[in-house]
Amino acid sequence: MAYKLAANSGETVAVPQVVFRHLARTDGDTVRVALYLVGGGAAEPRTIAHDLGLKSVEAAKRALQYWVGAGLLDRGADAALPENPSPRTRLDPDAINDPFVAVLCQEAQASFGRALSRSEMLRLVSLYLDEGWQPDVILTCCAEIARQPGNARKTVASVCRELHRWREAGVETGADAEKYLQREALRAERRQEVARLFGVDPADFTRWERSAIDRWFEQGGFSAEVIAEAILRAENHRTVRYVDGILRAWHAQGRTTLDAVRGQGQLTGANILATGAKPADSASTAPANDLFHTDWNAIFDDETEV
Predict the structure, then answer these.
(1) What domains does the chain contain, in order, with CATH numbers?
(2) Closest Cα to residue 62, out of 84, 45, 86?
(3) Are the C-beta atoms of residues 233 and 254 closer than 8 Å to each other?
(4) Cα–Cα separations (whole angstroms), residue 115 to 145, 154, 163, 245, 272
(5) Are the C-beta atoms of residues 56 and 137 closer than 8 Å to each other?
(6) What count of other Cβ atoms lies within 10 Å of the Cβ of residue 225?
(7) Pair 167, 180: CB distance under 8 Å
(8) For each of the chain's 306 residues, which pLDDT tens digit applies?
C-alpha cells in the first residue's frame, strides 16, 4: 500500500536541515525535543520533560546538550544548565499536595529506621522534584543503602551520592535500578571468587583491578576456571595486571574455554608457536635397536642364502 503526504491546510513550521541530518544518529526522545523546540517550546529541562513525558529532567538536559553540540541551539552565558540545583529551603503548595512527597518521606524513614531531619526531607524531595528522579528509584536506593552490611551512614546524603553513580551507569527507571543491582550483586560475587583464587581480600582490589575483573567475565567471556588457569600460568607474577595480560592474549587468539587454553583439540594460535619446532626425521634419529623403526624388508632383501 502506497502512502503520500496529505494536503496540509493548517499551520506549518520550517524544520532546520540539521534535524534531518541527525535522524539516524540519535534516539527518538532527542528528536522529539528538537521538534518541540522548533515548534516554539521553551528550552527549559523541567518543562520539556513534563510536556513530552520524558523519563527524567536529566534526559531533557542531555537532549539540549546534544542539540547544542549539533548546532541547532546556542547556549548563552545565562543558559548554562546547572549541574546541581540549589537546595530547597521550603516546600511550595504544589509540592505539599503531591502524594509522592509524603510517600517518599515515610518510606525513607522506614528504610533508615529513624526520623529524617527537615533538611534531609527537603533534600529527598529535591531529588524527585528538581533532579527528575522517579519516586520508586529513590526508594529503591534508600532500601539498598539501608541493606548494605556495616553501613553506618544511612543518610540522604549517601542516597544522593549513590544515585549519582546510578545515573552515570544509565539508571533512569525502577526497572533500570533492579537490573543495575542484579548486575552489581553478580559482579561482587565474581570478584569474591577471583579474590579467593588470588588468595587476597576482595576489599584490597583497586578500582582498576575491579574493572579488569568485571571485564574478564562480561567482555572476555571467561569462566572462573579459565581465570584460575591464567593465575596458574602467571607463576610468580600473581597480580591482576599480569593475569589481565594473559587473558587479553588468549582472547585475541579466540581461546576462551578451558579446553582451548590447555591446548586440547586442534592446535591453533600460540599453541602452534609453542609446539612448532619441526621434528627431526624419525629414521635418522631412531636408535639402532628400535624395532618399530627398522626396515625389515631391506634386511631380508639384502640377505643371501648360505
Answers:
(1) 17-75 (no CATH), 96-172 (1.10.10), 198-274 (1.10.10)
(2) 45
(3) no
(4) 16, 11, 21, 51, 68
(5) no
(6) 11
(7) no
(8) 677 777 766 677 888 888 888 888 788 889 999 999 988 888 888 788 888 888 677 788 888 988 888 888 887 655 544 455 555 667 677 677 788 888 999 999 999 999 999 899 999 988 988 888 899 999 999 999 998 876 567 889 999 999 988 887 878 888 889 999 999 999 999 999 999 999 999 999 999 999 999 999 999 999 999 999 999 998 888 999 999 999 999 999 999 999 998 874 333 334 333 333 344 444 444 444 444 444 444 544 444 444
Residue 247: C-alpha distances to residues 187, 198, 232, 242 (Å): 18, 15, 12, 9
Question: What are the grid coordinates assigned to 237, written together?
Answer: 607474577
Q: Rounded to an integer, what distance in angstroms lies between the CA atom of residue 222 and that of residue 254?
A: 11
Alpha-carbon distance values, 212 to 170, 186, 206 (Å): 20, 15, 10
